Amino acid sequence: MPAIALIPREVDRAFLLIGGTCVLLLVGITVAMVVFVIRYRRGKARTTSQVEGHLWLEITWTVIPTLIVTWMFFVGYEGFGLMRRVPPDAMVVQVTGRQWSWSFHYPGAGIDSTEMVVPVDQTVKVELTAPPTDVTHSFYIPDFRVKEDVVPGRTTYLWFKAERTGTYDVFCSEFCGKDHSKMLSRMRVLAREDFARWLATEQGKRYQPLVFEAIANPNHETFGPAGINVDTSSLYLTYCASCHGVNGDGSGLPGEARDFTTPADWKRSPKVTDIYRILADGVPGTQMRSFPNLSPWEKVASAHYVRHFLKTDAPTDTREDYDALVKQYGLDKIQPPKPALPIDEAMRLLVEKKQAPASAAAP
Length: 363
Ligand code: CUA
Description:
Layout lengths: L5 H34 L15 H30 L6 E8 L2 E6 L4 E3 L2 E4 L3 E7 L7 E5 L4 E5 L5 E6 L4 E7 L12 E6 L1 H16 L4 H5 L15 H8 L32 H10 L14 H12 L11 H11 L13 H9 L12
Parallel strand pairs: 1-5, 4-10
Antiparallel strand pairs: 1-2, 2-3, 5-8, 6-7, 6-9, 9-10
Bound molecules: dinuclear copper ion.
């Protein structure tokens, strides 16, 4: 498969050069050894002369390997230097790793996402961090040969520039606890126009005010106005499933997690508005944390989704419940959606040198 960017090409080149040299040496040494074993085996009446030392021979076998490993070092160092120097035109994506999910924040556009989406032919600087109370992870995109530790309370980085559109795996490559192996995400590389469209849709999701009908809608798959297509099952898998598995399994937090299929396990009312409050504030004194990076729409979507596991008829939200929620979180003050940005405008927002924080306050 042809390489998809500069860094993978450089990494593969270094790997082949160093690996190839090692194979050559291995074959050469093995062949010489076998030849000598056969040639000088016991039984042939022949006495060899006793050699005490040989200055030039010793200099040769010291200097040549030293040159080879020094050359190997520089082959690797070149690639390392390339990876550390971020080109100045980079767009920034901030990535947070936590037990056990990745989330992606686009500072120029003020949006969050559960998958990484970037435009093709655009340098992307990925800033990596984990909450201070979390553990160390490692952000890894195998196809792009980039990997960097994600350290709680610190910011590390890597960069790449995709030359082909497509979908690529994102892994955690540092053992970080029970569900380390489920800490997967994906990266979509889109054509620039498609990226601008994605950006506009995500902004629409974040800044479009909630409507009562969406909250009261009992269907967990469709809710809200057209254009707001929240991927409910992927939200659930990213944020909920590691503790709250579908059948009460997959609990990362024994004794804490609730089984959504059992009415007795619902400590609070399964109304969408009440689940919204839990998602917005967490449950103090438990492991249930808040999800400030989920947009109001995503909270409603998640609430509908976990509620649908409950097979009995769950109580429906009333107009009063909705009004109370809107009042509590100031949801009527959410900024109106921005019009779909023209691509140049979208890119300018993202590439802006000093990534100004999004003008609209995160709800
Ligand atoms: Cu995070 Cu392994």
